[in-house]
Write a structure and sequence with these properties.
The protein is an alpha/beta fold. The chain contains twelve helices and 13 strands. It has two domains: 125 residues, Rossmann fold (3-Layer(aba) Sandwich), CATH 3.40.50.720; 164 residues, 2-Layer Sandwich (Dihydrodipicolinate Reductase, domain 2). Helix 7 runs parallel beside helix 12 and helix 8 runs parallel beside helix 10.
Length: 346
């Protein structure tokens, strides 16, 4: 039985980690960490856990936690994990960080986009980018995994096969993405109040969103070249879900079957990536509550472009589900253990 600790257990991603791990037959939660609710019963923070979780919230003492568990999940704001991690801690336990602290390989890029000093640059090279479908073998050997962001997971996986095979001109790639409000976290913020969000859709972080360099870096590895792209996120009035619509110029004339074959080459055997039938577009409602990524595409011969579309649940595949998927790989368990989550509808 894997003993797990969660720092940041009362945020949306942390709460989803709790929900998933409670259904995992090979894991048990030993530490519900939450700086905001120390000594408060977890079920008083999340009433859905009434008579399910009896534990009280604890602090974020990673040193004490490392002596008690096999894996630590840090579902915390940027900078916290890097400020706490040490060689001594990593010698005792594995860490899966859901923040951006170890996703980017260039410290200057991290500090430029996140506006904070990196507190543990010595671990950046070691950290494995935990996009399981792409870095599976490296994740299996890791002791520190950087769990990808929600927008990035959807954006990268949607375009990855075509970038890898050189079928799209990377200099023309544009990503337009929409997210539910849970992606902004559980903290009280004026722009996220009901009256501000309801009956509205808006772009934000235009040309400045901090997931941009993460997407560029990972698709750059796939394409074998430096990638600079436009990424524009939008906030939509729903709880969960991300839809990414991506546009790029094709590098040659290709048929639907040829593009489909490329996607099948990379994802045909993947449990959590569903390649939709021809002319079927992904919808967030069909992945809600699940660890699936739904992907579709449409070739536009009139413009010589391809439109790639992907949908995920931002809290599951975009955060907690992917973290558990990484944990399964790190401990030699079946990758889908605890993640056989049928999408919820309605």
């Amino acid at each position: 039985m894997i003993k797990a600790g969660i720092i940041g257990a009362t945020g949306y991603a942390g709460g989803e980690l709790v929900r998933i791990l409670l259904g995992h037959k090979d894991a048990e939660i030993k530490w519900y960490g939450s700086r905001s609710y120390i000594d408060k019963k977890y079920a008083e923070v999340y009433q859905n856990m009434f008579q399910i979780v009896d534990a009280v919230c604890m602090d974020d003492n990673m040193e004490a936690l490392a002596d008690q568990v096999d894996v630590i999940f840090t579902a915390t704001p940027q900078g916290l994990c890097a400020s706490l991690v040490s060689e001594e801690i990593l010698s005792k336990t594995k860490i899966i960080d859901l923040s951006a602290d170890f996703r980017l390989k260039d410290v200057k890029t991290y500090e430029e986009w996140y506006k904070i000093e990196h507190k543990a640059p010595q671990f950046i090279d070691e950290a494995v980018y935990g996009l399981c479908e792409i870095n599976r073998e490296d994740v299996k050997k890791a002791r520190l995994v950087a769990n990808p962001g929600c927008y990035t997971t959807c954006s990268i996986l949607t375009a990855y096969p075509l970038a890898k095979e050189g079928l799209i001109d990377m200099s023309t790639l544009i990503i337009d993405a929409k997210s539910g409000t849970s992606g902004a976290g559980r903290g009280a913020k004026l722009p996220n109040l009901f009256c501000e969000v309801n009956e509205n859709i808006k772009a934000y972080g235009v040309a400045t969103h901090r997931h941009t360099p993460e997407i560029e870096e990972q698709l750059g590895y796939a394409a074998g070249e430096k990638v600079v792209l436009n990424f524009t996120p939008h906030l939509v009035p729903m709880n969960r879900g991300i839809l990414a619509t991506e546009y790029a110029k094709l590098t040659k004339d290709v048929s639907y079957d040829e593009v489909r074959a490329v996607y099948e080459k990379y994802y045909g055997g993947e449990k959590f990536i569903r390649l939709l039938d021809r002319d079927v577009c992904p919808e967030t409602k069909w992945v809600e509550g699940s660890n699936y990524v739904d992907i579709g595409f449409k070739i536009d011969p009139r413009t010589g472009r391809i439109i790639m579309m992907g949908a995920i649940d931002n809290l599951v595949k975009g955060a907690a589900g992917q973290a558990v998927q990484n944990m399964n790989l790190m401990f030699g368990l079946p990758e889908s253990e605890g993640l056989e989550l049928v999408p919820m509808f309605p």
